[in-house]
Amino acid sequence: MLSPDSAAIVRATLPVIAGAIQDITARFYDTMFADNPELLRDLFNRGNQANGEQRVALAGSIAAFATVLVERPGVLPGTMLSRIANKHASLGVTEEQYAVVHKYLFGAIVEELGDAVTPEVAEAWDEVYWLMAETLIGLERGLYREAGRGWTRATVVERREETADTVSFLLRPDLPMPFLPGQYVSVRVPLPDGARQIRQYSLSNSPERGDWRITVKRVRGEGAPEGEVSTWLYEHVRAGDVLSVSAPFGDLTLPEGDGPLLLASAGIGVTPILSMLDHLLATGSQRRVVVVHADRSPGAHVHREELAELVAALPGATLHRWYEDLPPAQARDAANGAGHATAVGRADMSAIDLPGDVVACLCGPLPFMRAVRAQLVELGVPDSGIHYEVFGPDLWLAAA
């Protein structure tokens, strides 16, 4: 919790900081990478830096954290911090790097705001930074301790073509490591320019299967840093190759208990949902599960048949699919009634009979998750019962 004096200063200066925070984070990253190019080359996602998403996400998280501190003293945004800590742990972020970030972030604040940053203002925001940093460091220590190891090697047992632009890899780590349905691993690859970039991929099968499966979508576009790791994996990796991978991390995991579930995905966001369904089947679950998936077309729907088979094998599960482009021959049950239904358009939660005590897990593009969340809230599902996973920087808070 902030000291009373710092809380008063942060409350008074928050509008100014928040108004300039994106310029601050842009200057912060530019300066830090100029002095420490290895961080951009081997740790930070170059694609997210190029398109500006990481800068927006950092700005949003800082503003959101400070707002919670002054508006709800004694409370920390646990979900946001857990998500950041898991991402950091999957990258191998160290405690020492928080001091590096502090140096360049506060240098950027002073450069952007000038004389407005008095010693008292600097001290108050320093307290905000280190409260957030020390909380994350503590969470990450626990995650590293639970994981028991850092980077490891995993052999590609099988490569399978899933769609025209998507492949799955079955991986066998050197030592067996458990994971929770919904978690992800980082994959670190050497690129032609000497960089060793890192990306996260959800584990798309159940823990009971032993081996890990990840699904990778190629991103088209010559020379674009967005998708450079996925494209490299798609084009170069074959059975028998060895990849450098992290232990499993991630906080969007299958909710415990036997209550009803809504598992909603769009596009490649289906991957953690598959892991959850596969685990429910492997453990003989009788839970009521409503599965929703939205995609461009049936042909673009990765793991389409597998998703339908898993739902069909679970006694309490139903499947509802929406496609923006659905050929007339495949359009059936447009009313989207009970059972395995397919319709044209975007996902519509009001068309589904949802239990009143349902817990929802969402994964997919941000616009999809925002739309589904808004529909669920309107239907009476509490915020505490809606969980989500973002592939890439979490821009949800930044746009709130």
From TrEMBL:
What domain of life? Bacteria
The record's annotation in CDD domains points to:
FHb-globin_2 (cd14782), flavohem_like_fad_nad_binding (cd06184)
Choose any GO biological process term that the UniProt entry carries and state it: cellular response to nitrosative stress
**EC numbers:** 1.14.12.17
Keyword annotations for this protein?
2Fe-2S, Heme, Iron, Iron-sulfur, Metal-binding, NAD, NADP, Oxygen transport, Transport
Name the UniProt record assigns to this protein: nitric oxide dioxygenase
Species of the source: Microbispora bryophytorum
**Occurrences of domain FAD-binding FR-type (ranges):** 149-255
By its UniProt entry, which InterPro entries does this protein fall under? Cbr1-like_FAD-bd_dom, FAD-bd_FR_type, FNR_nucleotide-bd, Globin, Globin-like_sf, Globin/Proto, OxRdtase_FAD/NAD-bd, Riboflavin_synthase-like_b-brl
Q: Which family does it belong to?
A: Belongs to the globin family.
Q: Which cofactor does it need?
A: heme b
Q: Which residues form the Globin domain?
A: 1-141
The record, for Pfam families, names: FAD_binding_6, Globin, NAD_binding_1
